[in-house]
Amino acid sequence: MCGIIGYTGKRDAKDIMLDALELLEYRGYDSAGIAILKEGKTQIVKRAGRVRDLRQLCEEKHPEGNCGIGHTRWATHGGVCDQNAHPHQFGRVTLIHNGIIENYRELTEKYELDRASSETERQIKEKEAERIVKAVDEKGYLIALAIHGKTYDSVQFSEHLEKLMITGNSHIQFVIGGSLGLSDRVLKLADEHISFSQLTFPHQLMRVILAEQIYRAYRIMNHEPYHK
Length: 228
Prior knowledge:
By secondary structure, the protein is an alpha/beta fold.
């Protein structure tokens, strides 16, 4: 489990950070790092391994300042390596966090931050693909929502779902990607790709749109009124 520490005061932040991270070792981790702020400049020192390895690296890098943040990471997305250790820096923003920032792409665009590396994005999508593959029923019909997919209006979408059910595909599954989209692995697994728009929607909003369109499709199948 990840651990987070922060300090600002009159003492040297490096030693406080390292001592605090050692106290968090019992939580389990695979990498550690600190960021120290001095005179408007941030120095990051991080590495895979133990806190003692980080302490040794700090003796070489000599980070100095009275304000800092520190982190111990337990990898869930991305491999165990120096690059994936926290803190991370995006432009003028330096951060540490637990869990996954699913809307990071929207945040980087909104605040004009540097993008994460393509390798980091690939790792995130592959990790997500593992969870999707485990959740998908192999006997079902899988539809991936992808911007390059086929488009339907509401009536066409209803007719398409009805045709699938008539032809024996009664177990229809939909998969919506995160902010990075779906991995090639998931796209190849899908029986077809559908696009609701060329626009990009937040994941939670797309779930609402999909649920509403499925509800509307069944209303059309049953020849009931629906809002055009």
